[in-house]
Amino acid sequence: MDLQAFRNHLEWAEGREKRLYTDSVGKLSIGVGRNLEDVGLSDDEIDYLLENDMRRAVRDASSLSYWDSLSDVRKLVVADLCFNLGMSRFKGFVKANAALARGDWEAAADEMVDSKWYTQVGRRAKKLIFAMRHDRLPKEDEQWMLSGQS
After folding, report:
1. Quick count: other Cβ atoms within 10 Å of Cβ 100?
2. How far is it, in rounded angstroms, from Cα 85 to Cα 92?
3. What average pLDDT score do residues 44-52 get?
4. How far apart are CA 137 and CA 132, in angstroms?
5. Could you tell me the pTM of the whole model?
6. I want to staple 87 with a disulfide (CB 3.0 to 4.6 A). Which of 13, 29, 59, 60 is the partner?
7. Which H or E run includes 84?
8. Rounded to whole angstroms, how far apart are CA atoms 37 and 119?
């Protein structure tokens, strides 16, 4: 079978969508007719998407003026924020970014706590704030992350 001809036909018949859409029978779909409700994604597809999203987050984060002054742990924090929020929303953390630029990790962490993001992401925020303050990721046995402390 000519797979290129099949591909061309499917793109013509299904269309090519970069964003989530509802197909003609009401199923959430993406790409070229990928029915996400019934077919979903394979682990390989999830890994592919994750790798691309990680590259984009690191590329965005590394464009920040203070990036090179950060330790690897703090780079992870900033890259995670870019991954989670997107660069434009992360740039909206004006006081946190100013604190990062001057190397004031406590103030940066305080600004992360003083945000809507903090209330939305739960344990993720607690882990990242700990890492920002202490320049290390928490150990598995530091279960305070599940409590209200930061």
Report:
1. 24
2. 10
3. 97
4. 9
5. 0.86
6. 60
7. helix 72-85
8. 29
